[in-house]
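seq as requested:
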Amino acid sequence: MASGKKMLIGGNWKCNGTVEKVSSLVAMLNDGGKFPNNAEVVIAPTALHVSYLVQNLRDDINVSVQNTWSEEKAGAWTGELTVDLVKDMGVNWTILGHSERRAYCGETPVVVAKKVGIALNAGMKVIACIGEKLEDREAGNTMNVCIEQLEPIIKAIPNGTVSNVVIAYEPVWAIGTGVTATPEQAQEVHEQLRAYLVNNIGTEQANAMRIIYGGSVKANNCDELMAKADIDGFLVGGASLTEEFLKIINSTAAK
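struct tokens:
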């Protein structure tokens, strides 16, 4: 771990959370005790619940939206969130390029990269997601797919904003399936992604950029994953809706 680089633990609640459930989760997090000094925690609720988290969540947890729109300013974009409105709400993080949006909303690498550039230019921080499908891995195309998604993101980063980007490697075949990439599989990809970054943005910036893992991260596998050299945290789905998430946050203490 590069000096001063905190482990990023993100909770992506996706399209989950009744009023009662969200209140319970916020109470769980607020009562979760002191987090390790090297943990940076970010929670992405549904858009419906962003305001509640901003107003009620403890100060050492950041709130994120799950997506922002591909235009800079508010306007006639029914159903969307623009970065200016997100920042006005007091939110400075966004997840972009999640595989579910790539699959269900047709977001291409070009669209994702445009959104990344807009968010960073607005002063936001971005968790940019990449990852291969099972057929890609079985065909030996994991890195080809990941680089195809990563390259336009890197090119879209404005000068001086690299530190505001977190890359989330999420193998699609492991998201919500209960199947997790082995720590060795995850480390192998993270190491190759780091090498790509070294070649494209230089060693110092590449080592400073956090590469986090997502894909069925749970309390029973987070320690082993966190022990790997190039894993700088997690983007957690289902387990972020349970008390397991506190264990996952605390796994950063060993890094």
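Strands lie at 7-12, 39-44, 61-65, 93-96, 125-130, 165-169, 210-213, 233-236.
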